[in-house]
Design goal:
By secondary structure, the protein is mostly beta strands. It contains 1 helix and 10 strands. Strands 2, 3, 4, 5, 6, 7 and 8 form a 7-stranded mixed sheet that branches.
């Protein structure tokens, strides 16, 4: 028998994946949005509009090409910032899509999952979350 303790518990609606409210912070600016948990995504990737709202020149970031499950690809640009998810705060690089038509926001392994402890009880539609060092 194993026991885990988490400071945060979040009930979610799972009709289209698990979405959680997050906040991106860059200096004094911040923006709130919903993002889906995607353990298959290598990085956290967001719509271009959210980066623009933070005052970023999106294309000035670290360019990276991403592949999709359907065989397509897209380019995104990485920027250092703080991300808050359900009361937990993480500093790291997140990516913003180059194409304004990109309409997904995902929390991936690098920058989020590798910085926290997560438990999901899908039967009860509950997500448990804590910062890795807590």
């Amino acid at each position: 028998m194993y026991t885990l303790e988490f400071p945060q518990r979040y009930p979610y609606e799972s009709s289209h994946g698990i979405s959680v409210p997050i906040r991106l912070r860059l200096g004094a600016k911040d923006v709130g949005l919903l993002a889906k948990i995607d353990t298959g995504a290598e990085y956290c990737i967001f719509e271009k509009a959210y980066g623009v709202q933070l005052g970023l020149v999106i294309e000035s970031g670290e360019a990276k090409q991403f592949g999709t499950a359907s065989g397509g690809s897209f380019r995104a640009f990485g920027h250092q910032m703080t991300m808050e998810v359900l009361g937990c705060s993480f500093d790291g690089i997140v990516y913003f899509a180059e194409d304004v038509g990109f309409s997904r926001n995902v929390l991936g392994r690098n920058g989020w999952l590798n910085k926290c402890r997560v438990a999901i009880v899908d039967h009860d539609q509950l997500l448990y979350l804590g910062e890795y060092d807590q």
